[in-house]
Amino acid sequence: MKVLITGASGLIGRALQRSFRTKGYELLLASRNEPKGAEDIKWSVEEGFADPSRLEGIDGVVHLAGENVSGGIRWTEEKKKAIRDSRVLGTRNVVNAISQLKDKPRFLISSSAIGFYGERGDEELSESSSAGDGFLAEVSREWESESRRAEDAGIRTVLLRTGIVLSKDGGALGTMLLPFKMGVGGVVGSGKQWMSWISLDDQVDVINYVIENENIRGAVNAVSPNPVTNEQFTKTLGEVLYRPTFLPLPEFAVGMIFGEMGDELLLASTKVLPRRLLDGGFQFKYPDLKGAIEHAVSGSDT
Prior knowledge:
Blueprint: E1 2-6, H1 11-22, E2 26-31, E3 40-44, E4 48-49, E5 60-63, H2 77-99, E6 107-113, E7 124-125, H3 135-152, E8 156-162, E9 164-166, H4 171-181, E10 194-195, E11 197-199, H5 200-212, E12 218-222, E13 228-229, H6 230-241, H7 251-258, H8 260-267, E14 271-272, H9 275-279, H10 289-297
Parallel strand pairs: 1-2, 1-5, 2-3, 5-6, 6-8, 7-14, 8-12, 9-11
Antiparallel strand pairs: 3-4, 10-13
Helix pairs in contact: 1-5, 2-3, 6-10, 7-8
């Protein structure tokens, strides 16, 4: 099988490459950089693929590319535009290219995010739940709308609404490890807000699962079946690292420091469940938070 990956140099992309190579897949890796080998293809959010003809013969696409939503201290208008364009315009260019191929790929696995649901308090959310409000929810709706256009071209499309991916090498956990190891970690805001997460290993397994199960299309929540509150997450991370967690970050401080980004990334409560994966019999390697964090910090990620 030949698979195109965008965002291949990111946290999930690197792990996915290793998994696909183990399976013997042929890879085509999209990047802004000039191609260095036969696997590389030049692509940018603004311009799309430099040589779309090289996409002929691919069996599928895993589209992971997107601007880091948590980079920097606050969301400037420039940052918000980069977040939106990298997802909406980038996805539009990918779908346009693969829809015009003579031999179209069988599937498009396109990233989305649980930000689709927005701030929802204690409400349990499944794939059938409505979209929420806020910047990330708005971006996610537009992002998914662009991805769904591939269905019109006869390409099976899966929208992975991914939660917080746990790995020591990046993402939220990678950022949190240093302050927690120094003993300056603590609850954010009230600590009652729900956090929906998934181990990096399980995220890669979910992608393989939806590729191999050709009846799956549409939205799929890529999260553990056991979401936790921020207070529970903080306590568990402290236990795993053998560090105290007594320095809270009050809600007013989050607002002062991070502004809108803090409201949506740190204070929003999103309790998401992977209904479709569970109904399909998917088996999580790390369904519980403590085991997932222990695995992640041990250095044995996928």
